[in-house]
Amino acid sequence: MRSLVLRAKTGDSEAFGALYDHYLDLVYRYVYFRVGSHALAEDLTSETFLRALRGMAEFTWQGRDFGAWLVTIARNLVTDHYKSGRNRLEVTTAEILDTPLDGPHIPENAVVTNMVNERVMQAIKKLGPEQQECVILRFLHGMSLAETAMIMGKKSGAIKALQFRAIRALARELPDDLG
Fold this sequence. Notes:
Elements: H1 2-9, H2 13-35, H3 38-55, H4 66-84, H5 93-96, H6 107-125, H7 129-140, H8 145-152, H9 156-173
Helix pairs in contact: 1-2, 2-3, 2-4, 2-7, 3-4, 4-8, 7-9, 8-9
């Protein structure tokens, strides 16, 4: 990755394309779990990579992973989106039927899975903003304590404590038969 980043810093579009391919899912999942809309997540993910491309020359390692830098950009975009009041209460018909109902997707299983996921997401949304972000980064994106600490601008010990409190709060919020 380091060589790809160095090549991209010098203007190598193929290197940036490889970085895009490698980190697209990470950034998209992060944004989607923060905004809950596929269309908005796609827009903000696209803007994240556009800003990364523009700022590529200024990127310095400073002990940071390139993916953490991208997630930081995405985090700022999501924050800006909510601060600006651009979020709307729109639901497109494409978002209503996200789960395909053919092939391996049995309708009953899809309904139960969606209900469980919705219940977990509702519980996560009841957490404080820092706990939400910690849970999303650690468990939905599978980031390490160090990566989460770097993105959130905290020490690893603070992330451990934050994660512990978030898990306890989720355990109190979710029914016993959900897990």
